[in-house]
Structure formats: C-alpha cells, structure tokens
Amino acid sequence: MIVERMALYLGLTPQFISKFSRGASHAYKAYTIPKRNGKPRQIYHPSKQLKSMQRWLLAYVIEQLPVHSAAMAYRKTVSTFDNASAHAKSKFLLRMDCTDFFPSITETDLTNYIQSRPSLFAGWSAEDVDVFCKLVCRRSKLTIGAPTSPSISNVVCFDMDSAVADLCSKRSVTYTRYADDLFFSTNTPNVLRPLEAEIVTLLSELKLPGTLAINPAKTRHSSKRGARRVTGIVLGSDGQTYVGRPLKRNIRGMIHRIDSLDPAARATLAGLVAYVTGFDSDFLNSLITKYGHATMCKARLPS
C-alpha cells in the first residue's frame, strides 16, 4: 500500500521502488566532517533519487507518527531554548550521552516498532515494511546524512522516553532528550547520582531500541555552584537562560566582517541573532550599542 502511494506521487513504478530499495545502501556518497574534538565524523549523503524517496516517507509516514514530549530535537515547534528552559530553575543537573546514537537504531528496531503498533501501519504488507526499512537505513542502521534519520530516532525512542520519564517522575526529576543527549534536573540533592545508575540499567534492558547505550565518558553532573549548560545555553543561578559565550563570539565575529559575508552567510547571521535575542534581549542591545543601527540593518537584523 505505501509503496504504491509513493510510486504514484513520485511518478515511478512499485516494482522500480522495490528493486531500488534492495540496493539503497549503495546509493550514498561518503565524506567526513570534524567533530568538536577534532576527530573525523563519517557522513553518508543519499543520492538525489534516494533522498526524494526518503523525503516522501518523512512527510507522509514518519512525521505522522507519535513523538514523546520529552524529545526536544528535530521538532519544528521546539527549540534548544525550550530544552534548556525546562531545567533552568533546578539546582542540580545531569547530562548523559548515548554512544553512536543513529547507528545504534537498527532495521530490527524499525521492524519491531512497526509490528508493535499495527494500528499505525494498517494496510502495510510485509513488502511495504521491508522497502521502508531498506530505504531509510544504510546497511541495516540509521545513518547521519539521511533526512529521515532524525525524525525516525525520535519515533523509535518513544518507549525509551516514556520509561525514562516515568522513572524520573517518581523521583521529582525533570527529563528531556535532545537527540543523543539526555538531561535530568531537580532541586533535591543526592538524587541524580543514584538515578545515573538506574538510567544505565534501564537502557540496557530496553527492547526498543535494543542496542542503545550510555557513553560514561560524557556523563556530567553540575549544580548552581558552577557552570551549567544545556544544548549550548547557559543556565544562570537566577533561574534564567543566557546565550553561551562561544555563540556570542561567533555572532560578533560575523558582524565584524559583515561586508565580506555572502548572502547565505548573512542569512545565517540573521537567523542566529533572531534566535538568541528571542530569549536574551540584552544581547541585541549590546550589539546595537557596539556596532550601531546601520550595521545591524545592513545585516537585515531588527534595530
């Protein structure tokens, strides 16, 4: 059913899509980008034809599936600011990171997800399931670079988010997840360290996704006595959110060389300033004071 719908929309035959899906893992171009630590990260960019199929599946299938409210990334109406704000008024913060997040979500996970929710996939045949999984996975795993991977990760992690949220609710802990980063906060001392071990155990016992694990090297505890950051946003001791210094430096640097920026870079700058001033209006005032209204208008920013 779903293959026929896609074929009709894209002007292809169901037979072509089915055959294409069996070799879809080879329809990627590999390249690398540096991680924050300088090490290379492998990215796989799908071919135009594969990407068109993935985008159709994203719009007409994946984005129609339920996502837990704790999931803050890859959602059109939720931002990093919303993620940080959920923890802003808490005294204690715990951040945990999942190892190899996208590749840890497998074709088996997708199949189990579909089979466990028959009402969401009514009318799907075994071939529909097989074609779907092969079109959104590379070598049976989600991959960085496919437009479908971010939203699928949220969908498949629904049970995990539900289990973690339930556990945290019993301990008066706020939980959010931004992609592979899990954040926990509370005003009660001596809660988050025991919770850390419970989360590791919970993830190891999950059936869906079945191989997700915590990277202990990236686990961080913090409190109001020190610096607390959530998805790049600083949580102040006054319970407010603030733009982090690295992002401010980046924005100031772009404004300083505004005359050398191409249109795409100027659009990026406009978006960055609009984003940060949405919750830190004092920063916009400081930019106007330093660079003047004329420069800010040149960058197509509000004055």
Short description:
Helix content is about 45%, strand content about 15%. By secondary structure, it is α+β, with helices and mostly antiparallel strands. Strand 7 and strand 8 (about 235) form a beta hairpin.
Helix content: 40-55%
**Structure summary, number of beta strands:** 9
Strand content: 5-15%
Gap between N and C termini: 53 Å
Explain this structure.
- It is a single chain.
- The protein has a 4-stranded antiparallel β-sheet with strand order 4-5-3-6, with helices on one face.
- It is globular, with a radius of gyration of 22 Å.
- It is built from 13 helices and 9 strands.
- The protein has helices at 2-10, 14-22, 48-60, 80-85, 101-104, 107-116, 126-136, 149-156, 158-170, 192-204, 245-256, 263-277, 281-298, and strands at 28-34, 40-46, 92-97, 174-178, 181-186, 220-223, 229-230, 233-235, 241-243.
- Helix content is 47%, strand content 14%.
- The model has no long low-confidence stretch (mean pLDDT 91).
- It is of the alpha+beta class.
- The longest helix has 18 residues, at 281-298.
- The termini are far apart.
- Helix 1 packs across helix 2 (14-22), helix 6 (107-116) runs antiparallel to helix 7 and helix 11 (245-256) packs parallel to helix 13.
- Strand 7 (229-230) and strand 8 form a beta hairpin.
